[in-house]
Prior knowledge:
With 259 residues, this protein is mainly alpha-helical. Helices cover 63% and strands 2% of the residues. It contains ten helices and two strands, in the order H-H-H-H-E-H-H-H-H-H-E-H. The C terminus is likely disordered.
Amino acid sequence: MAKYSSPEDFRFKGLEKKIEQRADLMVSGSGIPWEDRGSYGFVGAFFKTAFDGMFKPTQLLAKMARPETSTDARIFAYACGVIWFVAVLIQSTFSYFVFYVRDKTVDVDPQQYMINTLLEGVAAGVAAALMPRVIAWMFYRITAFDMTSKAPPILVRNMITYLMGVSLLALIPGGPNPWIPVGPILAGMWMFVTLLTVAISRLRVRVGAAIIGSMLTFAGTAAIVVGGIVLIFQVWCTALGKASITPIVKTSTSANQVR
């Protein structure tokens, strides 16, 4: 009986060891509008990048031409800081004319109110410019071990910075009361959704880890913001005295009746 031998290059596909294909997350794309400010203009590039980040975040971030450098993203963060400064001015002005001026139970010191608004705007702008670093640091520490394709911290930071274009929503004025502004709250919720989407589709984080990581990052960021506001207010009160920094004072019922 004749003997047959398999060719040397013959392989059984089912017995072959499967090799996991890992995507290179640092591949350069065609470039996003912000990286081409010379063509779009500074303002046009900012708005185009911001809107793409809000509605097409995965496609936008896949096109980054310089994912390994932070210069472009850092300037974008500064621009977002300016947006938050303006947002505070808008929200404060809205609250003044819609809530406080019409409320006969409070006395408002216009000069102190203006000073407080400007200081709050500066604080919000600086915090918004620095926040992408903090958010990226937290998110990377939580999800790094669950990325199917490892991404360097600089990539995560750049992506989160460009997602900050959602700050435009903070410009929407109004809310049910001065302490619940619709715009900033909507911006935070939108940021959470886009972060979760990008984590799964662009950073290749496993779904469960992406959900947990996004939730913990969102909660940590909210805690930092609230804690920072309380701390600044306490230091401010201690340094200047409550009477000198409080522009809104409740009036008594009897005083209102005399008037």
